[in-house]
């Protein structure tokens, strides 16, 4: 044998893992049956967080540098999809925790004070590495998040703020996309024409909708005006940058356009994996948002309006983060600017050839 | 054979069911592959809605009248738990719909106008029968919900508002609970003492927490004051009724107290199924809330900030209903008032006997 | 504060937990990205196994002794249902492991030899504590299961074989059920009459089924004869014991009858929680069976027909255990002997009173 | 508006859909509450079956003809992944059906006779279109499956046997893969060398494993011999064809080799989507297998060993189909022949260029 033999329990460090559950209720002489569940569920979350960080770091590494090898997009997609699968299981895991009733939680809740999930450095690292910006964070009780961490964890967290996040790396990769300029093919001009036609139709749908009252029409036309403004921002770098300053957009103008182009022409073989990459980011964002929502409602169920184990009303804070801590909202908003394939300017044949695969015989 | 033979396809009316998918994109000469999925997913939702209504109606019927047969609590719990299981599958079902990309949706989206999920009468019936009060409804574009329904469906919906809802029937059942008065045992006085002790401890935890700044302490003590106010409302019918008027509570004072007692003494055999009944209501509330959240984020993903198929921005409306349309929030808030079993006033032995089962030999 | 403060990372022993992943591929200089996932998934399984053992042991403890306090049935049901919820999440977890492709597994598979899941002592303990009998075990490569464990684990496993299993404790509890004899009410005689009527109808259904050929009828009548034989065993302790000796049944005659009675009269309040208890055992059995099935197919997918990391073809072995290692098959088979409520002998009123709850006013 | 307005209830044919549940227990004067659930669950399954057939037919169409446009692989993968997502939800759906207890089923079971799921033509079409061969089918009670269907459905089923199945189309597509011959690069010779090295190591692992007894070694070496035989079949078309004749393989020699090559070199951009295509087939096979397993165990739970609604013991039949009706087992078995990336013969640079994407600047 090339390697010394491995044994299951040693390989998995089971002694270390399975001796790490020490209920405080027992330590203080009032053993509560359900405290083990509480510990177990949180430890499993942390193990999954470590795995998510492992995948996240590996994808970030693939996107560092000035060039992303085409081979790596497939690898990155697989790893991001793995994160989504883990997230789906983590969301289901709340069902396990909710088999503990509030009354059973109460049996040991006081012993935990002031420990709190806010002290999870790994979750903060995930947020930072995905791209949650410091200035967009909800702070719990107005205390900067890192102040709740130990010194060593504070350093880790602050360091992760300095490293390029998945958001930033994705943005750079999008900005480098070579597809925005194809020789003589003027994508934007053709796209703009198609959009103008479509918006005119939308206006017509509202104006001629027999079920709407005048008041409703006024309201919906006002809404359409906002949509038109959105599109104008798409065709004007200056207006886009205003939206960025106001917080309504985050991606740079070039990156936003590149992402839109990928979404529109994703049927081209060369754009298919980039399309899956962006979709995987959307999935992750949606699933963290759902996870936070489930978390907040579980906390409400468990402790009502009483102060949390960390000495505070966690439910309201957690609910605020559901929307505020989303990272890739711009990718959701791309849907606003899609136009039907039938309205899409067709790619000239030489461009299509560029976007396909060539077999030996072509050359 | 006692009955004429049944055949699978006839029994399930499969011809009727499987011929009911008629994509409009095909009707208008531009067949879009994914429209069938869109139809299918919505039809399946509606079939589940019918099943949920079937269970809901049957449980409401069990709770009509002046007395709920003890036998029926078990039946009711099973049927409510069935609703939860259906809801869990319905939430997963969004994953199926999300395999359709926004670009694919766009291929047929215009053909659907102005159809919209807001026109689902069954969902409105579920909301009404659970107990969503007309004055608490979020109205989409300020139009009363029933105005979006056909005349026949309007009548159904308005009629369901007049019928006793599950919320109301639960309230009446709770108000009738015989457990609030047990001869000489003064539950409330003992409970109040236990609460006072606990709140004093909570204050101590905050005041002596070395990790809190003065500012934090002030904030948390203010929060504790609100908790104390909550408890005061629990001990004063007048204050409880003020909370009801302000919208912070909905259950009557007596019902609220009865629900709390069930939660606290659920280990008593006779209270175990009532406890499961209340827990099932909490689950249903949580799962509809989660369903709405998933729905809202799916809509955002699918259409960005553009107007919905019904001519309007559905995402924002749907997100508003996530919290506003919750029915059994009072049951979540009960957790605020739980005290540990160890602090619970013990039931006198003769009361415990009343709450247990007796076998022949006892008599 | 009554207790010294707790901090999240200390309380959960995160340093210990999160430093327990040491990929061997890295140790041997060929780091494979996916090995962390492999370790993580197995560690999480083991943490859940510990939690399952915690619940299992607590339920077994509740059922030790000569009397099971009625209060404890509700507690036992909740804990068994928690096990089911954990199992459901554990089954989903295979989806995470399957995001690792066979080719990625190959990058580190050789380093693991001869470690194998067969060396998981916790899984063996779960099997033994549920009630898997030594003589019914499938042995992998004809080696007794405990020979694959370390000495310390061997002792644990063998000791658990000696302790009363959940199967045995359930059997004893069923045997003590007081409901089999109700004064003058002869349940079995009435039940037997109802069964005879039903079987006669079943015979008629086959004989008069116009879609069956003579050959089919012969076959189905032969099958009915086997059903009748089953029923005969129900009415004869001697025949039941023959079935036990042959392995077709495992529960004692009295326990089997008691379980059947609980299933038939579960609408009686006092039998409702016992009914839920038996249902929870069925769920656990079904879910372990499904878990084993998913495990076996995952192994097949990962390594094809090649020998496993433990030096052997695990897939075939695992598939054999799917059926062979089921514990509560008798409870599934009870369905064979159910008769419709309408055919059930009605309980005399004084018996019903015994099975209900009484409030103060009755006395 | 370009199109007449659509209304939700009309568009979804809700009147048709929601009036198609007619419980027979009510028709025969003995309404059973749970029959609606039984109908609902089966109708939803059939609606999903229709959706699966829609996706399956569309993928088969993309693979008809002599050439599969590279663009279509991405489309096919998305549609097959959609089928998997539907299957996952369908498997969860059994949890809903299992909220019906066997006793509740009995309330209406007799009214259903002899209707049975064996009469589902859509499920037979799915099996045929995936590629279940007539001679490999398990027949229930030795009656050919189509004999249980109505005349119209029989024709549909038999016709589908004649059409090219997904299995056959995949095989043809694999056989056409241009990657098996790359100018001077002799893939097979290099691959064979790598395999020989690996098998020699496997032998060493067994021979030097200190934990194995002589008897075990003999057994495992015998097993290794079978593995070696497998590999020999991979290097000999004649032996492969023998395996096909014996039923151990189904794919043609060329297709099998092409599938292996795709699995081994899937990191090459051009092979990434083909790899995902094969993976999607594996997922579908695994999920139908799991669905069948869950189905069989649900039937056992519901009716024990009694004859099914179709007049027969469905449980045993269903369990037989779990393995026998698998279609893409060859793709699972490919894992047997994978070798680590590090042992893979590296592709010459000009071959790699062929397998990558080229941007304009390269030319």
Can you offer a commentary on this structure?
Four copies of one chain form a homotetramer. With 363 residues, chain A is mainly alpha-helical. Chain A has one domain: Methane Monooxygenase Hydroxylase, Chain G, domain 1 (Up-down Bundle), CATH 1.20.58. Chain A is 65% helix and 0% strand. Chain A contains 17 helices and no strands. In chain A, helix 7 runs parallel beside helix 8. The longest helix of chain A is centred in the last third of the chain and has 35 residues. The radius of gyration of chain A is 25 Å and the shape is globular. Chains A and C meet through helix 1, helix 2, helix 4, helix 5 and helix 6 of A and helix 1, helix 2, helix 4 and helix 5 of C.
Question: Topology of this structure?
Answer:
4 copies of one chain form a homotetramer.
Chain A: H1 8-11, H2 14-18, H3 24-27, H4 35-63, H5 70-97, H6 102-112, H7 121-130, H8 151-162, H9 166-176, H10 187-207, H11 214-234, H12 237-246, H13 253-264, H14 269-303, H15 314-324, H16 329-333, H17 349-355
Helix pairs in contact in A: 4-5, 4-7, 4-9, 5-14, 7-8, 9-13, 10-11, 14-15
Outline of chain A, from the CA principal axes?
A: globular
Write down the secondary-structure element order of chain A.
Answer: HHHHHHHHHHHHHHHHH
Please report the total strand number of chain A as a whole number.
0
Total of DSSP H or I helical runs spanning 4+ residues of chain A: 17
Instruction: Assign a percent range to the helix content of chain A.
Output: 55-70%
Structural class of chain A: mainly alpha
The two chains with the largest interface, and their residue counts, are: A-C, 64 and 64 residues
Mean pLDDT of chain A: 89
Q: What is the level 1 CATH name of chain A? A: Mainly Alpha
Oligomer: homotetramer
Amount of beta strand of chain A: under 5%
Radius of gyration of chain A: 25 Å
**First-to-last CA distance of chain A:** 48 Å
Low-confidence stretches of chain A: 307-312, 358-363
- The total domain count of chain A is 1
